[in-house]
Write a structure and sequence with these properties.
about 600 residues; alpha/beta; Rossmann fold; 23 helices; globular
Length: about 600
């Protein structure tokens, strides 16, 4: 195939304070073919975004060469020609949005390229249809949700008709349905429009669709190849802080449990994984390498069904109550937009309460009512007995309910990490000793080393900034912690660290409200889940009830957790399989148990 992008021993150093240098990309060489789909993986800070900026001509290498479609990256003139060919969508859409309306923002790129007006109108309409924003043409961008803003940024690049589209964590703020739609769009762009797509992502289900995968670590490429080869190296991926596609991880977990080796590269697709799991279980059964009967009895005793006190609300008073809540942005104007319509639910002390919904469903608007940032226009919100509509209650509520926004790093503002974390406790009137103790406890909970305290928060990596922002809320010791997409954009290892600290806080009695687009995380962690659609409550129940059918989830505009998707496919082989398991280890045990039940039934029939 024809080579489109070539990097030869490229190194790039950032200057720090004009003196020190930080090597972000270290002697990287790669070739990307025309009309191919390439995924680039790696932890936060591994150099992925810098590499994207080099390909796009936003940065010039310290050493080595970058060539795009035969054009060498030498100076600003060459860079301009390269940028015409390579459009880039950044992780934070606010960094790319400049227009006063959606239509105007998408027009900015084509206008700068000198595209004729007639063609520009066609391209703008086509791009907005692609991302599902055709009905938002005249809307001001600041009225869009985070996910809708990301779609707008993508449309702005597509309208320029680039030969290459670079997605730098562009799906991090999208809901599952929108992410699937974008990946379908990627496939269309590559196959039908012969566009080259480079997808920098932390979502393995996206990377597995690529033609080729690169893994970066500390500025260098540590592994590359076809996804079938790369995702078979589970230990390497885990050591680099990355995920493994869930069906491959479940297959490996079963192989480890029953002591039968997994055949290399035999579980790449879900269908292949089902067949490989069946082979593994049959081999273990025939060779008697695993005691299925003993495992079944142990599972029976450990999985006795019981209703936990968390999900039994009969004897508890709610800590937060929402009654008939409605909210409209830009009321009584032509831009009026209903964000919430007649919402009712309750949250109980010590719960981990999940909130999900498509982009623009009202999730962020809802949680901003929980600490008084927004006041009810219609209805009532009660937090620990305080009415959020009463001005005199707001200060008391904010002492008890901490809110972390979609981009927590935007909440950082002090000169040092210590001062930033200490700001909240100081506002609460704590003395110096109490403040120091609160800061120490907070950084321990979020996994930060004390040596970081005297650094500027703006010198930290993205993951560290996020932990500092969370520590600033935790240091205030809130009774309710509200997290709006706290792990978006973090690598899998960083995401797990954030989720682990939430579990720790819940175990200590803190009520946690988690807004997330990650259905696997929500299903695995939440006691109950509220599902919103276009500002309305669709369902508020346990994960088992919310995710009990693909049809119900589709009505909500969401998707099933990846674990459930795979378990549904496995159920075709093992009809007695319990679908409601949401982490790879519990899924593996449930599959082994279902295999055993199937064998017992087969043996009973033979005996008859």
């Amino acid at each position: 195939m024809e080579k489109f992008i070539e990097l030869n021993e490229v190194t790039f150093d950032y200057k720090i304070n004009g003196l020190e240098t930080l090597t972000a990309v270290n002697c990287v060489s790669m070739s990307i073919c025309k009309s191919s789909h390439v995924a680039i993986l790696g932890r936060n800070g591994s150099g992925k975004s810098t590499l994207a900026r080099l390909i796009n001509g936003l940065e010039v290498p310290t050493s080595g060469t970058v060539t795009v479609d035969g054009i060498p990256l030498i100076n600003e003139l060459n860079a301009w020609e390269i940028r015409k060919k390579c459009g880039i969508v950044f992780q934070n859409p606010d960094n790319q949005i400049i227009g006063t309306t959606v239509e105007e923002d998408v027009a900015f790129g084509p206008e700068n390229l000198g595209m004729p007006r007639e063609k520009m109108i066609v391209e703008i309409d086509k791009a907005l249809r692609f991302v599902g924003l055709q009905d938002k043409k005249k809307t001001a961008p600041h009225l869009l949700s985070g996910g809708q803003k990301q779609k707008l940024a993508i449309a702005g690049v597509l309208a320029m008709n680039p030969d290459c589209c670079i997605l730098d964590e562009a799906t991090s703020m999208l809901d599952p349905t929108s992410r699937k739609e974008l990946m379908k769009l990627v496939s269309t762009l590559v196959k039908d429009q012969k566009m080259t797509v480079i997808n920098i992502t932390h979502h393995m289900e996206e990377a597995i669709q690529a033609d080729y995968v690169y893994i970066m670590s500390q500025g260098s490429i540590v592994r590359q190849g076809h996804p079938r080869e790369v995702f078979d190296e589970i230990s390497l991926l885990k050591s680099e802080g990355l995920d493994v596609p869930v069906h491959i991880e479940i297959t490996q977990a079963i192989a480890d449990l029953v002591l039968v080796p997994r055949i290399s590269k035999a579980a790449f697709t879900q269908t292949e994984a089902c067949a490989e799991i069946n082979r593994i279980c049959e081999t273990a059964y025939q060779d008697k390498t695993f005691d299925f009967e003993k495992s079944a009895s142990e599972s029976q005793s450990s999985n006795t069904s019981e209703i936990t006190s968390k999900n039994d609300s009969s004897n508890r008073k709610p800590i937060l109550t929402v009654e008939n809540l409605s909210y409209t942005y830009s009321r009584e104007t032509v831009f009026a937009s209903d964000a919430l319509i007649g919402i009712d639910f309750e949250i109980y002390p010590g719960e981990l309460f999940g909130i999900v919904g498509q982009a623009g469903s009202g999730k962020s608007t809802l949680v901003q009512h929980f600490n008084g940032l927004l006041r009810p226009q219609t209805g009532k919100v009660m937090v620990m007995g305080y009415d959020t509509s009463q001005k005199q209650s707001i200060r008391a509520i904010r002492k008890k309910a901490g809110l972390l926004f979609q981009y927590p790093e935007h909440q950082l503002f002090e000169e040092t990490v210590y001062q930033d974390i200490a700001f909240g406790p100081k506002c609460l009137g704590l003395n110096d000793k109490e403040i120091a103790e609160s800061v120490e406890q907070a950084i321990e909970i979020v996994g930060l080393h004390p040596s970081i305290l005297e650094k500027s928060p703006f010198e930290l990596s993205g993951g560290q900034k996020r932990r500092v922002a969370i520590a600033g809320i935790v240091a205030m010791k809130p009774e309710i912690l509200i997290l709006d997409e706290p792990a978006a954009g973090l690598d899998p290892a960083g995401r797990e660290e954030i989720l682990d600290f939430m579990k720790q806080l819940c175990a200590k009695g803190t009520t946690v409200v988690l807004v997330s687009h990650n259905m696997d995380d929500i299903a695995r962690l939440a006691d109950r889940i509220l599902v919103l659609k276009k500002g309305k409550k669709i369902i508020c129940d346990t994960p088992m009830e919310v995710f009990k059918s693909r049809e119900q989830v589709a009505i909500c505009g969401l998707s099933l957790p990846m674990t459930t998707e795979f378990m549904l496919e496995m159920k075709q082989k093992y009809p007695l399989l319990d679908l409601f398991n949401y982490n790879p280890d519990s899924c593996a045990k449930a599959i082994i148990q279902a295999f055993h039940k199937k064998k017992k039934l087969e043996n009973e029939k033979v005996g008859c």
